[in-house]
Design a protein that fits this description.
By secondary structure, the chain is α+β, with helices and mostly antiparallel strands. It has 26 helices and 23 strands. A hairpin with a 7-residue loop joins β9 and β10.
Amino acid sequence: MKNIRRPNYKVILIIGIYYHALSCNCFIINPSHHVSQHTICHHTSALNKPFTLHLSESDVVNDGKETKDTSLQDRLACYLPTIRTAFISICAGSLSVILASILLFRYSLENGDQTIYQIGRSSSSVSSFKKDKGTSVIGKKQAVDLYRLILQELDETYVDPVDTETLFETTTRGVLSTLDPYTEYVSPKDIMKRQQSVGIGAFVMKPGIAPADTLDGKSVSSLLSRIPTSVKLPNKLHSQSQNKEGYRVLVSLEGAAYDAGLRVGDEIIEVDNESIVGDEYSLEKVREKLQGDVGTSVKLTIKRPGVNKIQTIDVERKQVGFPDIPYYGTIDSHRDIGYIKLHRFGLNSGVKVKEAIDSMQSDNKNMKGIILDLRDNTGGELLPAVQIASFFLPEDTYLGSSSSSKGKDGLYPDQSYYSGKLDVTQYGYKSEKDFIISHQGNSDILDVGGKQIIYTDKTNIVILVNKKTASASEFLAGALQDYDKAVIIGTDKTTYGKGIGQREIRLPSGGGAMKLTYAEFQTPSGRCVQPKPKSFQKNESKEFRSKNGRLIKNRSGIQVDEKVTPETSVLSDLLSSSGAYFDFATDYSSKHKSDFVVDDSTYKEFKSYILKEQRRGNIKLEEEFDSDKLIERLSSKLKSSKSSTTKQSISKLQEDIVGDLLTDLDIDKDIISHELEANILSRLLPDSELTKRRLPTDELVQEAVKIIDSSRYNLILNR
């Protein structure tokens, strides 16, 4: 459709002004002006013939003087054409000015230009936008102008002082949250905290702290749930003394605090000779004291359970983080089956995975199988995912693609990924030199490359997943599943379902950054693991199949080939969250220093401890069970009730809950014993060693071993 040429509104306006001025000039003509009336009449009669007058010689000006005897009728007849012309000019000029103003205002709305009509404080300036069919109510520039106007109005006229920075961050987060759950705003403060992630490599908690307490605006309990350890961490700790206490160590990382001698269960009472005992120091303040410049040391004064003497430890501050691979090694019962726990996809993950495979192959050149554990792996960098997939597939194998509505013309063009080809420009880098400079001269990632080192016709591959497996983990699992190169085993039917690519765009003037979703990813078969809202589910019912013809679903994460439902215990989870495991293990390990397993005697002692603490009220299993506080809210509503029967029923319900839970101490003995043992050993051993010790009782790992070691593997893959 051809564009219609718009009228030149400014020309219309000029013409209107001209006519308006002309009318004014007509009015200022004065009869006393030294101009011949005959001349005027001739000019007017040329325009208006009905008013033409024929004058006599006596009426003509003689010797430069006007005649005095011209009749009033003749003079009026002479002026009538001028008056008529002036009147028409006034009307034409005024109408032209009004029409041009209206058209200019409409044009400014359609094209985003700002006029004086939009700058005013009238509410009509906000509500008078035109809504075109099939388009937004306002355009991008208009939205920006309106947002600026709103901030200005709030700043100048709101009843209370307005924190513009907070208002901006809140509104920006709200806007981005309407797009998808992952596009978000990163404030300058958040960026600064991330850059200052320098500490000692430990997580601490004060006894008596509530799960609702926060750190960086997030509840402590939610932060603890994200820490990848071999034991389930408590949401709170109970006071072990009548005196004021310091902070207990929940996690001590290898390569950092653990290597310096700090152990789980230690109580930190001073930091650099300054006491942190009592309520004066919040968790936020303690963290600030433990952080500092890289290479500097912090002096910790600690109490260790079972040791009477107070100890001091110097811990070096460094860039700390959880390792990409907390543990790898062969299965004790099957030395020809390797195991790799991949916690996240950092840029060095490909290098670390290759080192793990090379190490296991050096011990056993005929590896029968490899178990790649991606449980709780929420993703990370795409480059190492492509690199690791390349270790299991022939060179130049298509691994998948990224695409968006912008296509090849977008800021981040659509890409296709192939094994053995590490084109760093696909991951936001200008060149390999730029990549190396960005990583402090480290070229190991590029040196390792992505050559095939595992041949799946000889080595069976099993990938372990759960509902937290997402993003880059799904890219890797999807590629191997589509080519029928790995069996996927999980505790849930599908993985999380996050098949998108994101990049962080820094905003100018120190305004933080925007974490932006720029593309969706497709696996080699063409499916996408990213779910879509029902309103967008069009043409998504197409069937997808693996290389061997297995049916695989679209838009629903990575579905598992084998689902395993491990035994669980509600009571064991409550004992973890309540701090019962932690407190007992801290006391028990102070009295028993040797390496051991939980036997009947130890379990009997633990059972007695739980019953005693429940009676004393230090542990309240009924409250841990009713985490949503439904019973408590019901009791509050019934306080005004006159019915004693109802109140007794609630008390009886709580007693029954506690009774049933305590009965589970015998029913769930095996599960509770394993968790108790891990908690006790965490005071004596690093987390990597704990991971190894738990493999024999890990039901998914044992199922993977069975599948690798049987004909089921080929049957599942339809070979």
